[in-house]
Amino acid sequence: MFKEITIIGPGLIGASLALAIRSKKICNKIIGIDSSKKNLDDAINRNIIDEARKDIDARISSSSIIFICTPVSSIDNIIKKISYFSNKNQIITDVGSVKNIFSKRTLSNNGLRYSLVPGHPIAGTEHSGARNAEIDLFKNKWCILTPYKKRSKSVKIISKIYKKIGMKVSVMSTLEHDKIMSITSHLPHLIAFTIVGTAFNLNIKKKNELINFSAGGFKDFTRIGSSDPKMWTDIFIKNKKYLMKTLELFLKDIEVIKRDIKNNKVEEIFNLLKRTKKIRKSILEKGI
Amino acid sequence: MFKEITIIGPGLIGASLALAIRSKKICNKIIGIDSSKKNLDDAINRNIIDEARKDIDARISSSSIIFICTPVSSIDNIIKKISYFSNKNQIITDVGSVKNIFSKRTLSNNGLRYSLVPGHPIAGTEHSGARNAEIDLFKNKWCILTPYKKRSKSVKIISKIYKKIGMKVSVMSTLEHDKIMSITSHLPHLIAFTIVGTAFNLNIKKKNELINFSAGGFKDFTRIGSSDPKMWTDIFIKNKKYLMKTLELFLKDIEVIKRDIKNNKVEEIFNLLKRTKKIRKSILEKGI
Q1: Is residue A9 located within the same domain as residue A143?
Q2: Which run of H or of E encompasses A126?
Q3: Are residues A75 and A158 in the same domain?
Q4: Domain hosting residue B180, numbered range
Q5: Does the CA dihedral A169-A286-A242-A97 come out positive or negative?
Q6: Residue B88 has what pLDDT?
Q7: How many beta carbons lie within 10 A of that of residue A129, not counting itself?
Q8: Domain holding B97: CATH number?
Q9: pLDDT score of B250
């Protein structure tokens, strides 16, 4: 039981985290910091946070743990601001979808001005903001931690909190995380965002009815592709290295099936699709 | 109320159709024809069909309506077989996901040896076979009919049946249908099938755990990508023309966002993603 936890950016993830933390009685008081007054109002009105602040200031030194739940491009700079007021006993953790994002300065202060435990609870919906927060958002999902000091007390604490709110925890390197996310999340989102635009530019009479004529497929893609634009712009830029590599591999694979279709290579296509079904089966059996 | 209806290929779609038709008391007797004994057994055991046959023969002349629910590459040939026994009062309809698939011979017999009403009830799951049939599969979904004689009595009958089992019906040309499907269904499936293979070829330590680290995104893709390989091979080949055109447009759009990411064009990416969100909103508001 902690006295106080601060959530910087109590949006969909941050506010859901606050709800889950409160329900599990992990701390007494939750502070929310956000530059958006509207989001802070939502969080206060839904009783998600106990106190709302616009800025990071000296008061942050009373929080045992600080969760940074902003778009990834802001995280490093926020840590810099916190570091003026923090001490080495305070844990700073984040929830960003890209993990190789920390400056040398931030890493060199780790253990001196704060204890840094980078994290990524893999959960979310296509909605955003505190008004869409869900208490059960994290239940039975996975959380990846990418600590620089794997056996530290701070890692144990953050891991315990995520387990307490129903998550399974996996520890890996930042690079392994960013590689995995490039295929399981970032490329699918890139494709989904793109295909909705492609559909809209097609020369089709019944364009506004497109969504009706979709069983799964396109409908799933539009849902994925309606996620928060700012958050995803940041992710695409910050994980550029692995996202571009994975995209290139995907485009090569697309070229193969494209050529097979063009040349009516029925057997080759069938074998490709059959293999996919097998892979899925093996992933499902081993994975979950 | 019809005396008899034949379902050729009582798989997921055909058997679900039989269940829905029976529950709405649209006919007295349902015949199932399939080359797979196992699937026929499943259909008989689940009481989906009243009689199972291996072949198309003279007995088919007693059915008022014949639904062809096989992979699209077989449909035209099946109509040829039926035509030896059928008469102009019998309606032949299909449920194929590609509609520009009929030979000149098939079209020239329309109105003489049978009345052809090509159709596509847009429904399905990633599962196949009579054992996975669902009575409510078609409820509140759309069915597209692409008749060559739009105002015929047969079109009215087929349209009425689909409405009776809960579908909304839209009539359009075969080409318009195939163009729409290329973006709402065929390209999303092509991408989903491909990306699972790409994931499997990645150099990742925790490959078998990939699916765990996926909230939406990849998980949705693997589900879509585990659909029936034979059915989808046929669809890709049969709708080659529009699928390839749509794929080219998509790849052009991917090149644009790829270039923007490579060059850190934050504003351009943000605007692209924001537009997608808007398009989805407008599609959802107007469409459903």
Answers
A1: yes
A2: none
A3: yes
A4: 176-287
A5: negative
A6: 96
A7: 17
A8: 3.40.50.720
A9: 97
Residues A191 and A154 in one domain: no
Both tokens assigned to A173: 């390197």
Is B146 in the same domain as B15? yes
pLDDT < 50 regions, chain B:
287-288
Residue A202 burial (CB count, 10 A): 16
Q: What are the structure tokens assigned to B36, written together? A: 């797979």
- What single string gives the DSSP state of each residue in B188-206? HHHHHHHHHHHHHHS--TT
Query: Residues of chain A whose pLDDT is less than 70?
Result: 215-216, 283-288
Which two tokens mark B85? 């026994």
> Is residue A165 located within the same domain as residue A188?
no
pTM of structure = 0.90
- Please check whether residues A155 and A250 belong to one and the same domain: no
What is the structure's pLDDT at B288?
A: 42
Phi-psi region of A57 (alpha: psi -120 to 50; beta: other; left: phi over 0): beta
Q: Do A257 and B190 touch (CB under 8 A)?
A: yes
> How many residue pairs bridge chain A and chain B with CB atoms within 8 Å of each other?
303
Return the H-helix or E-strand segment holding B213: none
Residue B277 structure tokens: 């969100």
Can you tell me the ipTM of this complex? Answer: 0.89
The answer to whether the CB atoms of A211 and B272 lie below 8 A apart is no
CA A261 to CA A64: how far, in whole Å? Answer: 58
What's the domain count of chain B? Answer: 2
The Cα A74–Cα A130 span in angstroms is: 18
- Whether residue A206 and residue B249 make contact (CB cut-off 8 A), yes or no, is no
Look up the CATH number of the domain holding residue B192. Answer: 1.10.3660.10
Among A172, A199, A230, identify where a domain stops: A172
* Residue that is last in its domain, among B145, B172, B199: B172
Confirm or reject contact between B285 and chain A (CB < 8 A): no
Chain B, nearest residue to A182 by Cα: B199
Pull the structure tokens for residue A47: 């009783």
Here the tokens at position B113 are 């040896």
State the amino acid at position A180 in one-letter form.
I
Confidence (pLDDT) at B83? 98
